[in-house]
């Protein structure tokens, strides 16, 4: 007989794209255990949008980097803070944890937290403290979401492939509309295109390996404005604002440049007012997919079948070059590039513009 769980904890300490990949898991759990209380441990950056998830009862922020800083300063303070956090979780009496951290410390934490059923993915035996686990070399032959969903089979659930979900508060959406009106845009009427020329922070110094050239984004934006007569917005996070500013500076036409000027919630709200997103591989394309936007995504070293828009459907168009060395990001490792980013450089502005026109609808 399938066990019924009453208090469920999900752990994923990573970025917004990765956390969005778990939203179909959350919905499956709520459908299977409608009376269960479901909580989620994440980092503080993604907490604002997870708190709007209608299937979650609690969102708990945990900053691993903060704990590392405390450890460097004082081992005593580290153990005090760590045990206080563990104790707070123990008091909640979870009977199931699903750990997507692929992290030794988190899998050990679930034991100290007193959770009896502990399931997840296991890479290099880092999740050895889980009671049931699926060995993982890397994400390679199917989408990451499907890997995450497969963990549910360990407790007898045959998962459904629900789409990614992202819920927004009405007051945040209204605030975004007000911002756009002040900029001369009618959110309900104007056809707005968002451009995200960055690729996220997860690759650190090698992040530019995922970037289609800024000058091409600029020329594409100019062409979109001139030929289609639409409004263009440029978005980039605080640590990537220089990329967004480059695109804006290279442009001849006028676009709204929000690079480095919005909070996560403001970005989500403004993006939701757009009809189309053009982006490199990264979190924004998954946000757009979850919001129901049309997406034109540009993929270089990463396999779009694994990390691309989910689920694959008519609203998502991927542009990539099938060259022999691609994809070169496999099993969490990025190979050295010996071809000067040919997989991205060789993608022309016209190729991307043709995809954009597929989604454009003249409302005149």
UniProtKB/TrEMBL annotation:
Entry GO MF terms: ADP-heptose-lipopolysaccharide heptosyltransferase activity
Recorded catalytic activity of this chain's protein: an L-alpha-D-Hep-(1->5)-[alpha-Kdo-(2->4)]-alpha-Kdo-(2->6)-lipid A + ADP-L-glycero-beta-D-manno-heptose = an L-alpha-D-Hep-(1->3)-L-alpha-D-Hep-(1->5)-[alpha-Kdo-(2->4)]-alpha-Kdo-(2->6)-lipid A + ADP + H(+)
Pfam family, one: Glyco_transf_9
Gene3D superfamilies tied to this protein: Glycogen Phosphorylase B
Entry EC no(s): 2.4.99.24
Keyword entries, A-Z: Glycosyltransferase, Transferase
Gene Ontology CC terms: cytosol
Family according to the record: Belongs to the glycosyltransferase 9 family.
Protein name from the UniProt record: lipopolysaccharide heptosyltransferase II
Organism in which the protein naturally occurs: Thermoproteota archaeon
Taxonomy of the source species: Archaea, Thermoproteota
